[in-house]
Amino acid sequence: MGEWIGRDRKARRAYGFDEIALVPGRVTINPEEVDISWKIDGEKIPIPFMASAMDGVVDLKFAIAMGKLGGIAVLNLEGIYTRYDDYEPILKEISKSTPEKATELVQKIYTKPIKEKLIAKRIKQIKSAGVPAAVSTIPQHAERFGAIAQEAGCDIFVIQSTVTTVRHISTAYKVVDIRDFCKKMKIPVIIGNSVTYEVAMDLIETGVHGLLIGIGPGSACTTRGVLGIGVPQVTSICDSAAAREVYYKKTGRYVPVIADGGMSTGGDVCKAIACGADSVMVGSAFARTEEAPGKGFHWGMATPHANLPRGTRIRVGTTGSLEEILYGPARLDDGTQNLVGALRTSMGNVGARTIREMQMIDIVIAPAIKTEGKLFQAAQRVGMMK
Protein backbone atom coordinates (compact mmCIF):
# COMPACT_ATOMS: atom_id res chain seq x y z
CA MET A 1 0.00 0.00 0.00
CA GLY A 2 1.30 3.46 -0.85
CA GLU A 3 3.15 5.15 -3.70
CA TRP A 4 6.79 5.67 -4.41
CA ILE A 5 7.89 9.20 -3.48
CA GLY A 6 11.57 8.53 -4.16
CA ARG A 7 14.04 5.70 -4.45
CA ASP A 8 13.25 3.00 -1.85
CA ARG A 9 10.75 5.31 -0.16
CA LYS A 10 6.98 4.86 -0.15
CA ALA A 11 4.24 7.06 1.28
CA ARG A 12 0.59 6.26 1.86
CA ARG A 13 -2.03 8.61 0.39
CA ALA A 14 -4.12 10.33 3.07
CA TYR A 15 -7.35 12.31 2.72
CA GLY A 16 -8.92 15.41 4.24
CA PHE A 17 -12.53 16.57 4.42
CA ASP A 18 -12.42 18.57 1.18
CA GLU A 19 -11.45 15.45 -0.81
CA ILE A 20 -14.46 13.24 -0.05
CA ALA A 21 -18.25 13.34 -0.31
CA LEU A 22 -21.09 11.33 1.22
CA VAL A 23 -23.32 9.30 -1.08
CA PRO A 24 -27.12 9.72 -0.68
CA GLY A 25 -28.94 6.53 0.31
CA ARG A 26 -31.71 4.48 -1.30
CA VAL A 27 -33.93 5.36 1.66
CA THR A 28 -34.36 8.85 3.09
CA ILE A 29 -35.57 9.72 6.59
CA ASN A 30 -37.29 12.70 8.16
CA PRO A 31 -34.39 14.60 9.79
CA GLU A 32 -36.46 15.10 12.95
CA GLU A 33 -36.68 11.32 13.38
CA VAL A 34 -32.96 10.47 13.40
CA ASP A 35 -31.12 9.86 16.67
CA ILE A 36 -27.91 11.88 16.99
CA SER A 37 -27.13 10.95 20.61
CA TRP A 38 -23.95 9.13 21.60
CA LYS A 39 -22.62 7.47 24.74
CA ILE A 40 -19.49 7.59 26.82
CA ASP A 41 -19.07 4.91 29.49
CA GLY A 42 -22.77 4.13 29.15
CA GLU A 43 -23.91 7.72 29.73
CA LYS A 44 -26.10 9.11 26.95
CA ILE A 45 -25.24 12.58 25.62
CA PRO A 46 -27.98 14.26 23.53
CA ILE A 47 -25.79 15.77 20.79
CA PRO A 48 -22.36 14.67 19.48
CA PHE A 49 -20.66 18.02 19.99
CA MET A 50 -17.85 18.88 22.38
CA ALA A 51 -16.28 22.32 22.73
CA SER A 52 -12.48 22.32 22.68
CA ALA A 53 -10.51 22.90 25.86
CA MET A 54 -9.21 26.25 24.64
CA ASP A 55 -9.30 29.42 26.70
CA GLY A 56 -10.82 31.50 23.92
CA VAL A 57 -13.69 29.01 23.62
CA VAL A 58 -14.60 27.58 27.03
CA ASP A 59 -14.93 29.46 30.29
CA LEU A 60 -17.45 28.83 33.08
CA LYS A 61 -20.33 30.65 31.37
CA PHE A 62 -19.74 28.88 28.07
CA ALA A 63 -19.47 25.47 29.76
CA ILE A 64 -22.80 26.01 31.46
CA ALA A 65 -24.50 27.26 28.27
CA MET A 66 -23.15 24.30 26.27
CA GLY A 67 -24.31 21.83 28.91
CA LYS A 68 -27.81 23.25 28.94
CA LEU A 69 -27.99 22.83 25.15
CA GLY A 70 -27.09 19.14 25.34
CA GLY A 71 -23.38 19.21 24.54
CA ILE A 72 -20.13 18.99 26.49
CA ALA A 73 -17.67 21.86 26.94
CA VAL A 74 -14.18 20.99 28.22
CA LEU A 75 -12.43 23.48 30.51
CA ASN A 76 -8.65 23.71 30.16
CA LEU A 77 -7.01 23.17 33.57
CA GLU A 78 -3.71 24.45 32.14
CA GLY A 79 -5.27 27.77 31.13
CA ILE A 80 -6.01 31.16 32.60
CA TYR A 81 -9.08 29.97 34.54
CA THR A 82 -6.91 28.06 37.00
CA ARG A 83 -4.11 30.63 37.06
CA TYR A 84 -6.11 33.79 37.75
CA ASP A 85 -8.96 34.34 40.20
CA ASP A 86 -10.22 37.22 38.04
CA TYR A 87 -9.58 36.25 34.42
CA GLU A 88 -11.73 38.85 32.63
CA PRO A 89 -8.92 41.47 32.45
CA ILE A 90 -6.61 38.80 31.00
CA LEU A 91 -9.09 37.95 28.24
CA LYS A 92 -9.52 41.62 27.45
CA GLU A 93 -5.76 42.11 27.23
CA ILE A 94 -5.37 39.20 24.81
CA SER A 95 -8.19 40.43 22.57
CA LYS A 96 -6.69 43.94 22.38
CA SER A 97 -3.14 42.82 21.59
CA THR A 98 -1.68 43.41 18.12
CA PRO A 99 -1.00 40.34 15.95
CA GLU A 100 2.74 40.96 16.30
CA LYS A 101 2.60 40.93 20.11
CA ALA A 102 -0.14 38.34 20.68
CA THR A 103 2.06 35.23 20.96
CA GLU A 104 4.58 36.96 23.23
CA LEU A 105 1.77 38.25 25.46
CA VAL A 106 0.11 34.85 25.76
CA GLN A 107 3.45 33.21 26.58
CA LYS A 108 3.92 35.73 29.41
CA ILE A 109 0.37 35.34 30.76
CA TYR A 110 0.67 31.56 30.96
CA THR A 111 3.85 31.64 33.05
CA LYS A 112 1.84 32.32 36.20
CA PRO A 113 1.55 29.11 38.27
CA ILE A 114 -1.64 27.06 38.31
CA LYS A 115 -3.58 27.37 41.56
CA GLU A 116 -4.85 23.93 42.53
CA LYS A 117 -7.62 25.44 44.67
CA LEU A 118 -9.08 26.97 41.50
CA ILE A 119 -9.41 23.54 39.87
CA ALA A 120 -11.97 22.39 42.42
CA LYS A 121 -13.61 25.82 42.51
CA ARG A 122 -14.17 25.99 38.74
CA ILE A 123 -15.59 22.46 38.61
CA LYS A 124 -18.00 23.19 41.45
CA GLN A 125 -19.09 26.43 39.77
CA ILE A 126 -20.00 24.52 36.60
CA LYS A 127 -21.71 21.71 38.52
CA SER A 128 -23.78 24.20 40.51
CA ALA A 129 -25.60 25.09 37.30
CA GLY A 130 -26.80 21.49 36.94
CA VAL A 131 -24.69 20.56 33.90
CA PRO A 132 -21.84 18.05 33.42
CA ALA A 133 -18.31 19.27 34.16
CA ALA A 134 -15.50 18.14 31.85
CA VAL A 135 -11.88 19.25 32.23
CA SER A 136 -8.59 18.72 30.41
CA THR A 137 -4.94 18.56 31.41
CA ILE A 138 -1.59 17.43 30.02
CA PRO A 139 -0.29 13.93 30.90
CA GLN A 140 2.33 15.24 33.36
CA HIS A 141 -0.40 16.70 35.59
CA ALA A 142 -3.00 13.97 35.11
CA GLU A 143 -2.56 12.11 38.40
CA ARG A 144 -2.54 15.18 40.63
CA PHE A 145 -5.25 17.13 38.83
CA GLY A 146 -7.32 13.99 38.23
CA ALA A 147 -7.59 13.35 41.96
CA ILE A 148 -8.61 16.94 42.64
CA ALA A 149 -11.14 16.99 39.79
CA GLN A 150 -12.74 13.72 40.80
CA GLU A 151 -13.07 14.85 44.41
CA ALA A 152 -14.72 18.08 43.22
CA GLY A 153 -17.40 16.16 41.30
CA CYS A 154 -16.02 16.25 37.76
CA ASP A 155 -17.92 14.10 35.25
CA ILE A 156 -15.35 13.62 32.44
CA PHE A 157 -11.56 13.89 32.66
CA VAL A 158 -9.53 14.50 29.52
CA ILE A 159 -5.79 13.93 29.13
CA GLN A 160 -4.57 15.81 26.10
CA SER A 161 -1.25 16.56 24.43
CA THR A 162 -0.03 17.27 20.89
CA VAL A 163 0.85 13.60 20.38
CA THR A 164 -0.15 10.99 22.95
CA THR A 165 1.21 7.44 23.12
CA VAL A 166 1.11 4.70 25.73
CA ARG A 167 4.87 4.26 25.51
CA HIS A 168 6.29 7.68 26.34
CA ILE A 169 9.96 7.93 27.32
CA SER A 170 11.29 10.66 29.61
CA THR A 171 13.93 11.00 32.32
CA ALA A 172 12.99 14.60 33.11
CA TYR A 173 9.58 13.87 34.63
CA LYS A 174 7.40 10.98 35.76
CA VAL A 175 5.50 9.38 32.90
CA VAL A 176 1.82 8.75 33.63
CA ASP A 177 0.78 5.09 33.56
CA ILE A 178 -2.44 5.43 31.58
CA ARG A 179 -3.68 1.93 32.39
CA ASP A 180 -3.17 2.44 36.12
CA PHE A 181 -4.67 5.94 35.94
CA CYS A 182 -7.87 4.68 34.29
CA LYS A 183 -8.25 2.02 37.00
CA LYS A 184 -7.93 4.64 39.75
CA MET A 185 -10.41 7.06 38.22
CA LYS A 186 -14.10 6.47 38.90
CA ILE A 187 -15.17 8.79 36.09
CA PRO A 188 -14.73 8.43 32.30
CA VAL A 189 -11.27 9.24 30.96
CA ILE A 190 -10.80 10.55 27.41
CA ILE A 191 -7.30 10.70 25.98
CA GLY A 192 -5.65 12.24 22.93
CA ASN A 193 -4.40 13.13 20.53
CA SER A 194 -3.49 10.41 18.07
CA VAL A 195 -3.98 9.67 14.36
CA THR A 196 -2.97 6.06 13.63
CA TYR A 197 -4.50 2.62 13.96
CA GLU A 198 -1.64 1.26 16.07
CA VAL A 199 -1.65 4.08 18.62
CA ALA A 200 -5.46 4.07 18.82
CA MET A 201 -5.36 0.36 19.63
CA ASP A 202 -2.63 0.86 22.24
CA LEU A 203 -4.65 3.59 23.95
CA ILE A 204 -7.95 1.71 23.82
CA GLU A 205 -6.36 -1.32 25.45
CA THR A 206 -5.37 0.75 28.51
CA GLY A 207 -9.03 1.11 29.50
CA VAL A 208 -9.73 4.68 28.37
CA HIS A 209 -13.34 5.62 27.66
CA GLY A 210 -12.81 7.79 24.59
CA LEU A 211 -10.17 8.82 22.03
CA LEU A 212 -9.45 12.27 20.61
CA ILE A 213 -8.33 12.02 16.99
CA GLY A 214 -6.44 14.78 15.21
CA ILE A 215 -2.97 16.30 15.16
CA GLY A 216 -2.65 19.81 13.78
CA PRO A 217 -5.94 20.35 11.88
CA GLY A 218 -7.33 23.09 14.13
CA SER A 219 -7.67 26.59 12.70
CA ALA A 220 -5.51 28.09 15.46
CA CYS A 221 -2.94 25.29 15.44
CA THR A 222 0.42 25.58 13.66
CA THR A 223 1.84 22.18 14.65
CA ARG A 224 1.89 20.98 11.05
CA GLY A 225 3.90 24.01 10.00
CA VAL A 226 6.23 24.09 13.00
CA LEU A 227 6.86 20.35 13.40
CA GLY A 228 5.82 18.99 10.00
CA ILE A 229 3.68 16.25 11.57
CA GLY A 230 0.04 15.28 11.19
CA VAL A 231 -2.31 13.14 9.14
CA PRO A 232 -5.40 14.58 7.37
CA GLN A 233 -8.56 14.00 9.38
CA VAL A 234 -10.46 11.65 7.06
CA THR A 235 -7.66 9.08 7.09
CA SER A 236 -6.95 9.62 10.80
CA ILE A 237 -10.58 9.01 11.78
CA CYS A 238 -11.01 5.98 9.50
CA ASP A 239 -7.84 4.31 10.78
CA SER A 240 -8.68 4.99 14.43
CA ALA A 241 -12.27 3.82 14.01
CA ALA A 242 -10.95 0.59 12.51
CA ALA A 243 -9.01 -0.03 15.73
CA ARG A 244 -12.15 0.67 17.76
CA GLU A 245 -14.12 -1.88 15.72
CA VAL A 246 -11.49 -4.62 16.06
CA TYR A 247 -11.32 -4.05 19.82
CA TYR A 248 -15.12 -3.97 20.11
CA LYS A 249 -15.52 -7.28 18.28
CA LYS A 250 -12.84 -8.84 20.44
CA THR A 251 -14.01 -7.59 23.86
CA GLY A 252 -17.55 -6.21 23.55
CA ARG A 253 -16.39 -2.87 24.98
CA TYR A 254 -17.11 0.11 22.76
CA VAL A 255 -14.76 3.09 22.97
CA PRO A 256 -16.04 6.20 21.16
CA VAL A 257 -13.82 8.04 18.71
CA ILE A 258 -13.99 11.84 18.89
CA ALA A 259 -12.78 13.80 15.85
CA ASP A 260 -10.84 16.78 17.20
CA GLY A 261 -10.22 19.74 14.89
CA GLY A 262 -10.43 20.65 11.23
CA MET A 263 -14.21 21.02 11.07
CA SER A 264 -15.47 24.50 10.24
CA THR A 265 -18.84 23.65 8.68
CA GLY A 266 -21.75 21.30 9.16
CA GLY A 267 -20.59 19.33 6.14
CA ASP A 268 -17.22 18.68 7.78
CA VAL A 269 -18.98 17.41 10.91
CA CYS A 270 -21.14 15.06 8.83
CA LYS A 271 -18.09 13.71 7.02
CA ALA A 272 -16.21 13.16 10.29
CA ILE A 273 -19.03 11.02 11.66
CA ALA A 274 -19.42 9.15 8.38
CA CYS A 275 -15.72 8.28 8.57
CA GLY A 276 -16.26 6.65 11.96
CA ALA A 277 -16.38 9.36 14.63
CA ASP A 278 -18.99 9.09 17.38
CA SER A 279 -18.67 12.75 18.31
CA VAL A 280 -16.73 15.84 17.28
CA MET A 281 -14.66 18.34 19.25
CA VAL A 282 -14.90 21.81 17.75
CA GLY A 283 -13.03 25.01 18.56
CA SER A 284 -13.27 27.80 15.98
CA ALA A 285 -17.00 27.40 15.29
CA PHE A 286 -17.74 27.88 18.98
CA ALA A 287 -15.14 30.64 19.36
CA ARG A 288 -17.40 32.70 17.08
CA THR A 289 -20.34 32.57 19.50
CA GLU A 290 -21.52 35.45 21.65
CA GLU A 291 -20.90 33.31 24.73
CA ALA A 292 -17.25 32.56 23.88
CA PRO A 293 -14.78 34.29 26.23
CA GLY A 294 -12.28 35.10 23.45
CA LYS A 295 -14.31 38.11 22.30
CA GLY A 296 -13.98 37.18 18.63
CA PHE A 297 -10.47 35.72 18.98
CA HIS A 298 -9.28 32.13 19.17
CA TRP A 299 -5.88 30.74 20.13
CA GLY A 300 -4.42 27.24 20.17
CA MET A 301 -3.64 25.21 23.28
CA ALA A 302 0.06 25.09 22.38
CA THR A 303 0.34 28.84 21.74
CA PRO A 304 1.77 29.57 25.22
CA HIS A 305 4.66 27.09 24.87
CA ALA A 306 7.66 28.91 26.32
CA ASN A 307 10.21 27.89 23.67
CA LEU A 308 8.31 26.58 20.64
CA PRO A 309 4.75 27.93 20.28
CA ARG A 310 2.68 25.71 18.00
CA GLY A 311 -0.43 27.80 17.75
CA THR A 312 -1.45 31.32 16.90
CA ARG A 313 -4.14 33.80 17.87
CA ILE A 314 -6.61 34.26 15.05
CA ARG A 315 -9.56 36.58 14.64
CA VAL A 316 -12.75 34.61 14.01
CA GLY A 317 -15.27 37.32 14.77
CA THR A 318 -18.64 36.86 16.44
CA THR A 319 -21.41 35.60 14.20
CA GLY A 320 -24.22 34.51 16.52
CA SER A 321 -25.28 32.90 19.77
CA LEU A 322 -24.26 29.39 20.78
CA GLU A 323 -27.84 28.29 20.23
CA GLU A 324 -27.75 29.63 16.67
CA ILE A 325 -24.45 27.88 15.93
CA LEU A 326 -25.82 24.60 17.24
CA TYR A 327 -29.54 24.71 16.43
CA GLY A 328 -30.11 27.72 14.18
CA PRO A 329 -31.86 29.43 12.65
CA ALA A 330 -28.84 29.99 10.41
CA ARG A 331 -28.30 33.57 9.28
CA LEU A 332 -25.22 32.74 7.19
CA ASP A 333 -25.05 30.67 4.00
CA ASP A 334 -21.65 29.03 4.54
CA GLY A 335 -22.54 26.06 6.75
CA THR A 336 -21.11 27.48 9.97
CA GLN A 337 -24.47 27.74 11.76
CA ASN A 338 -27.13 25.18 12.76
CA LEU A 339 -24.60 22.35 12.96
CA VAL A 340 -27.12 20.04 14.62
CA GLY A 341 -29.64 20.71 11.85
CA ALA A 342 -26.98 20.01 9.22
CA LEU A 343 -26.13 16.67 10.82
CA ARG A 344 -29.78 15.66 11.10
CA THR A 345 -30.50 16.62 7.49
CA SER A 346 -27.43 14.82 6.18
CA MET A 347 -28.30 11.67 8.11
CA GLY A 348 -31.84 11.84 6.76
CA ASN A 349 -30.61 12.17 3.17
CA VAL A 350 -28.21 9.23 3.41
CA GLY A 351 -30.75 7.08 5.23
CA ALA A 352 -28.94 6.80 8.57
CA ARG A 353 -31.19 6.51 11.63
CA THR A 354 -28.36 6.64 14.18
CA ILE A 355 -24.74 7.76 14.49
CA ARG A 356 -23.75 4.11 14.20
CA GLU A 357 -25.58 3.78 10.87
CA MET A 358 -24.04 7.06 9.68
CA GLN A 359 -20.61 5.46 10.16
CA MET A 360 -21.47 2.79 7.59
CA ILE A 361 -22.65 4.86 4.62
CA ASP A 362 -20.93 5.07 1.23
CA ILE A 363 -18.17 7.64 0.75
CA VAL A 364 -16.54 8.68 -2.52
CA ILE A 365 -13.21 10.37 -3.22
CA ALA A 366 -14.32 13.68 -4.73
CA PRO A 367 -11.65 16.41 -4.97
CA ALA A 368 -14.03 18.58 -7.04
CA ILE A 369 -16.91 18.36 -4.55
CA LYS A 370 -16.52 21.96 -3.36
CA THR A 371 -15.75 23.58 -6.71
CA GLU A 372 -17.86 21.68 -9.26
CA GLY A 373 -20.46 24.07 -10.71
CA LYS A 374 -19.60 26.82 -8.22
CA LEU A 375 -18.23 29.38 -10.70
CA PHE A 376 -20.52 32.21 -9.60
CA GLN A 377 -19.98 31.50 -5.90
CA ALA A 378 -16.23 31.58 -6.47
CA ALA A 379 -16.36 34.79 -8.49
CA GLN A 380 -18.59 36.52 -5.94
CA ARG A 381 -16.94 34.92 -2.88
CA VAL A 382 -20.23 33.77 -1.35
CA GLY A 383 -21.63 30.51 -0.01
CA MET A 384 -19.11 27.66 -0.21
CA MET A 385 -16.44 29.84 -1.78
CA LYS A 386 -16.04 32.56 0.87
Automatic annotation (TrEMBL):
<dbReference type="InterPro" id="IPR005990">
    <property type="entry name" value="IMP_DH"/>
</dbReference>
<dbReference type="InterPro" id="IPR005992">
    <property type="entry name" value="IMP_DH-rel2"/>
</dbReference>
<feature type="domain" description="IMP dehydrogenase/GMP reductase">
    <location>
        <begin position="14"/>
        <end position="360"/>
    </location>
</feature>
<dbReference type="Pfam" id="PF00478">
    <property type="entry name" value="IMPDH"/>
</dbReference>
<keyword id="KW-0560">Oxidoreductase</keyword>
<dbReference type="InterPro" id="IPR013785">
    <property type="entry name" value="Aldolase_TIM"/>
</dbReference>
<dbReference type="GO" id="GO:0003938">
    <property type="term" value="F:IMP dehydrogenase activity"/>
</dbReference>
<dbReference type="GO" id="GO:0006183">
    <property type="term" value="P:GTP biosynthetic process"/>
</dbReference>
<dbReference type="InterPro" id="IPR001093">
    <property type="entry name" value="IMP_DH_GMPRt"/>
</dbReference>
<keyword id="KW-0520">NAD</keyword>
<protein>
    <submittedName>
        <fullName>Inosine 5-monophosphate dehydrogenase</fullName>
    </submittedName>
</protein>
<comment type="similarity">
    <text>Belongs to the IMPDH/GMPR family.</text>
</comment>
